[in-house]
Amino acid sequence: MAPTSTTLAAMQAEATELGSRVNNAPSKDEALGLAIQAAQLCMKALKLATSPEQKSELKSKCQLLLNQAEEIKTTPTWRPLPQLSSLSLDTHGTSVSGTSGSPSIPASNVRKLVEPVSTRDLSKKEQLLVLRASMLNDFKFKPWKGPPDPSEFAAARPSAKPFRDNHDLILSPHQMESFDGWKHAVDALPPPTLFPGDRRLLGPMMHTNRSIDLVQDAAADCSVVASLCAGTARVGKGHQKLLGDILFPYDTKKSRPMLSQNGKYIAKLYFNGCYRQVEIDDRLPVSKTQRMLHVFDRKNPALLWPALIEKAYLKVRGGYVFPGSNPSTDLLILTGWIPEHVFLQDDSTGPQALWKRIFNAFQYGDVFVTMGTGHMSSRVERELGLAGQHAYAVLDMKEEDDQKLFLLKNPWCEGTSWRGSLPRSSSSRVNSPGPNVEFRSEDGTSTPSSMLGVFPRPQEQYAPGIFWIDLNSVLQHFESIYLNWNPGLFTHRQDIHFAWNLTDQEKRGSPGCFINHPQFALTCKAGGPVWLLLCRHFQSTTQVTDDLVQLQETMKSDLAGHISIYVYDRNGQHVYISEGFLERGPYVDSPQTLLRIDVPANTTYTVVISEQDLASTSHTFTLSAFASATLDLSPARDKYLYQSSVKSSWTSTTAGGNATVPSYHTNPQFSLTVPIRTSLVLLLETLSPDLHVHVKLIHGRGQRVASIKRRDILLESGDYRRMSAIAEIDNVEPGVYTIICSTFEAGQIADFTLRIDSIIQTAIKQLPPEYAGRLPLKLSDAFFNPSCKKVAAPLHPSRMVRLMVIAKFIRAPAAPGTPVELGSRSPLRVSIELGRGPDRRFLMTSSHGEYSDAEAGVRTEDVDLWPAYLQEGEMWLVLDRLAGPATGEERCRVELFCDGVLGDDLKVGVWRDWDD
């Protein structure tokens, strides 16, 4: 049996190894051979498999490999896919000779990547969530069902009015200063202020044989225009055209967008959980000045499609009053490509590794690269030729000798160029102003060698705002690099949609406590790199047309807050607190964040969504997982089937502090009844940000406890933790236990919630305060002189009274001006006795008759005192110390907690020395 098991395991391992090499094979024939070999091994292993689980897994794997082999057969061209890792995304392939070490990849060598589609069945709740997310800013954006029928763009009749949206998009106050009205494309392009007079021979166009040079002017959407520039540059390098998947109507034969007959256009954009249909009319905001209110092409002022895509995007984001974004968000919406935000000032960002990650992928056209600056002073802006808090498009990347260079474009129409240190050996020519650089348009035009991997010759110069800059200068003066990866780099994808109600602080929970956070189980059976993309859905913005400044601020506040992703090795089970994570993404203020992880085979992780300062409303999200192997993404599982909780407070009389404080016993206490053996979790949570809290489970028989020994403690939460504390235990025996909830400092007043999760149903009940229903009766202090070991005071009840006694030493000086050390207290015992001498009877003693020097003092349990006891002899309250200090005296403070009235129901005499 053992040899068969070994052979089976070896076959499975070899099949997995062969299968992992398929996508990276250098040729189509080799890829096909690897897939077939791996499938044959799976078939052989299937004959040896004995368990249903093994057989099912091998069948699935074999079918996947056969499907992959069939796909390879039908692939007209072949290129190896990138190898992915959790730390990098490197692309590998045969480089076509370029210049200065920069590969240029002819389009004929590039295999088209197919975007994976989530195969997970959505629950009805998720389906409703996606449908409700269609309503945004008084528009309805239906989920994408496929390319629209050409009839949607046909004119109903020659005299029919052009298609028109139900309301216009809003412009900012700054834009309104130049606004001359909404005009159809035929009257808007080319811009009337640039081409005044007779317009009979003028009008919009959808393609051009000239280069494309997109710029922004009076709009605040530099990130959008930078995104469009990055897209045109990618097509200009000969890569797959994207407009055919974005804007309709589209002429598939000529590979270019078409003018709509009825003025209606439809864009396919990705937001709020899926690709959606965005309908727009062809009217554009026209300026009465030289300032342009929409994106335009400096070389081709009549080119329409950039303005249409911009309008569709801004319709989703609330209008031309749009306060700004970052290019990775914009390109996700425009293309669906996976966004990644690289923080250049992060110590973990390695320049060489970063360049290696993106350089080859950029040459293959598998990544968009854009950049953003941080805040800069006006002086620094002038000195460097850069704009602060601004987005730039990366048009090209080059390696020359040991230099790593980016070709950047500032999308402003009057954009400045880099004035810092220039690349060596090219500094005299690469950044000087001159004729525009050539870009290939979507319909296909010639592309100069400068865009195919060759540095510009001395006579070749760039348009204003386009410049080369080296990697070191980017790291020094830019804040972020934004990457958008082709989702076709992955073969599998799973999406899950969810809502998170943050309408009040209690539902939000305390920082670091994750019990109310959305959580999910993630499994990748074959293991390998998995990318997790969290997208926060956009919410509607109230259209306040009479206060546009307020509207813009409202839009900014709706986008405020930060989100992050945590990953735990918890087998897909719920996580309670933030500690102990395997991986954690940064908290970002973007609508999306990405976390890359390596998942071992047959391992299930728990993924937790976290937030900071999101608006107090109900938010909706989509979590997407990408991998090169089969994925499973589902809601996290509850290890514990039952939850019970109780709300309580630390008050001025119950905030006892930590266990070293004498008043610890006054903290809120609870009884916990466990009917049968179980595992459970105690979770203590408060919303007071300055409190550090602790929870303890003890053998207390469900009663209040005043003093605790180490052996009494069954479970505790460890160090005091800010705002929340957790303690988890397996196999708790049946019984009734006592729970104590405390803050670190005494006197800290706050509300809290104690939650118990367990495998079986338990019962929790708050115990009455220690002095509930009783009056505290403070006696005069008792003194022990150096020769005295016992003092007593007579008791005389006139009716039955219930009594508890607390006695503790006071830190009185042992000699004038000299404090007694904490550890010098004598062990003490308090008792209530009938009679004197060897025949006396103890009615109650503290600590079961043992002596204690605890700082909290000693105390008795409750005892009922009846007048009839006095018939047996005198009744005494006795304080007994085990030994006295060498010098000085000790003073003891005594309090009685009685349900009667001192002097009427119970009389207490004066202290006196006592000898047995």
UniProtKB/TrEMBL annotation:
Compositionally biased spans, kind Low complexity: 418-437
Pfam families: PalB_C, Peptidase_C2
Active site as annotated: C222, H390, N410
Domain annotation Calpain catalytic: ranges: 140-487
Region (Disordered): 418-450
Top-rank lineage group of the source organism: Eukaryota
Protein name according to UniProt: Cysteine proteinase
Coiled coil: none
Swiss-Prot/TrEMBL keywords: Hydrolase, Protease, Thiol protease
One of the record's GO molecular function terms: calcium-dependent cysteine-type endopeptidase activity
GO biological process: proteolysis
Family assignment from sequence similarity: Belongs to the peptidase C2 family. PalB/RIM13 subfamily.
